[in-house]
Amino acid sequence: MSAEAGRAAILRRSLRVTVAASVGFYPLLYVADLPAAALYALFAPIAIGLLSAIPGSGRRQAFVVLRALPPALGLAALGTFLAVDTWSATGGMLVIGFLLAFAAVAGPRPAGAAPGLQLFYILACFPPYAPDALGERLTGLAVGMLLLAASHALLPDPPVPSYRKRLAAALATAARGVTTGEVTPQDLRDTGARMRLSRVPPSERPAGAGRTDRALEQGGRAVRRLLDQLAALPELPSPAPDHASDTLLGRVAVVCDTCADSLVTGRRPPAPGALEQAMRNFQSERVRTAPGPVAPARPAPEPPTAGANGRTPSLAVLRRQSRVLALAESARIVEVTVDIAANGRPADPPAPRELFWYAELSTPKLWARRVLGNATLRSVLFQNAVRTALGLAASRLVAGSLDLDHGFWVLLAVLTLGRTTVGATWRAARRALAGNAVGALVAGALLIGLGAHTDAYAILLAPAMLVGFSLGPMLGTAYTQGLFTLVVATAFAQLAPVTWRLSEARMVDVATGSVIGLLCGLLAWPAGAGREVRRAMAELLRTCGGLVPPTAEALLTPSPGSRSSPRTLPSLHRLRLAEAAYAQYRSESGTASKDAEPDWHAVLIAAQHMLLGAHRLPRFGLRPEIGPPNPSASRARTTAAGLRADADRIASLLTGGHPVSEPNTPPEPEGYSPASLSVDLEVWMTSLGRQLAHVEASVTRRPAPDRAA
Length: 709
Fold this sequence. Notes:
The chain is mostly helical. The protein is 69% helix and 1% strand. It has 25 helices and two strands. It has a two-stranded antiparallel ribbon. Helix 16 (422-450) runs parallel beside helix 18 (477-495), helix 21 runs antiparallel to helix 24 and helix 23 packs antiparallel against helix 25 (679-700). Mean pLDDT is 83; it is low at 293-310.
């Protein structure tokens, strides 16, 4: 989003919140004479409209607000009854704080609404204990939320393309790149980069635990990989004409076009399987024309087709065919995932089943896996939920024990100023305190000057909200806190007689909340995702590195028992945790641009390369016929073991270890020919070796060696 578009979005949001808060506050206070209802009608749009990130635009945002209304009413009611004493309110805050923060496992949409929902419990759980005022509170809350929903519908943000449309556009680009060749490699890579979730608005990210979201997310990663593979294909040395590869690429283009049409129009896509059949025919042709004694990974269901000219292809052609086959596998994954997204549970289990493990599970089981998979101290989502819950509960206990005036501001400070690192929390708290100091002086002078003239505060409230809610986010934390202090002063001056000490109370509360937030940050994962991303990436490399030797063995030993893919579910789980840690790490201020850090994105790419090879090669890779051992097979096994050792060594370096082993690629034996074993295995291990060398160079800050498998 451009700076101008960002400012326009902030202005629209501030106008929506100001209108909704004003339309609810003034009539309830001055016409109905319901101060409690007016207070909740004022803070409901602020909580959901400002503190929360409501996804989508227009009607979708209005629908999200309406869906948040029932839990908001329940939290306000629960807080009202638990306000009977400090300990019950604190216990409720601990549980609710954790559950709402941990809701981030469901994706950015629930995570965006969580801070606002927290505020409804916070506001209600403070004295006075007034269960008889529950009806008035819920009335005001409902009025504020309904008005906010109406403001979203009447003043919507510009619509953004859905993830399905983004995916369809990327597939259309891939189809043009295959058939016409008019799309440059750089354009293909740029299109793939735009599919990265970090560049997709949170409202459109397929981050849920259900089959549809999982399928779309997996399809998006496959499309990105497909575009990168297409971009790299013409950059290779041009071998002799290869009719078999051209035919398979034509099938890839057809699959891309049909999947794009299904995503745009909503029509059911063709049943997957045609591309896999084309890949098997392609492999049959390779088997027929390849030099040396080779056999297919599994028997082809149809007779092989004749070659273009009957001559044995060169090693360069075989290597290019291996890359075309890997490219086709990426398109096949897209074909399967689009079918799952459109039809839900597939009629036939997609292969390999472990790669599409979610396709046959029910929605409750998928959600259980998502929750249980993140219920670990190694999950940054779990860490953030624990940190938030402890901070809010401690704030409620301190505010209640010390009987602080307007103590909910202590919790609000923890909620809005807390960050995932101690350094970032301190910077935010320092700016907030400075802004509050200036705001308190201005508000104190305002309260002294206007005294008890309620009409003057009523006139100032709406302009103060509009200015504060628009300029604050544009200018930073200090301005936001200072201007919000003015809004609070003009609002509370209409609800009850106040003096300049209101600003003093807010200053004390914000300082108390800042100290509590810093202490919680020091005690609970003070470095944010910095340390966790190293652990997660190290474990990912270890588990994925362990897939290389069994994958090589599956290609080198053509016995029926060796044709299954290695077990990859543990690696897939580690990949999820590593991606979550990396996403938080990228969002933390001051960490994402450090040149001295390892190339985490390259680690994720290498891990996915291992995972996909472990699935693809046993199914489609060329393999030798049964025969006596030879030096080439021994070298391949040694190379695979060396790649696993490389991954383990890099993992040790990431976690502070000092491994003594160095890269050790065995020399080529006399008469070595990759095609006499499996050119697919050779291409995969060569690429993997280069990727690991790049990762290690980024860790040790040494130039990457020129390595080949």
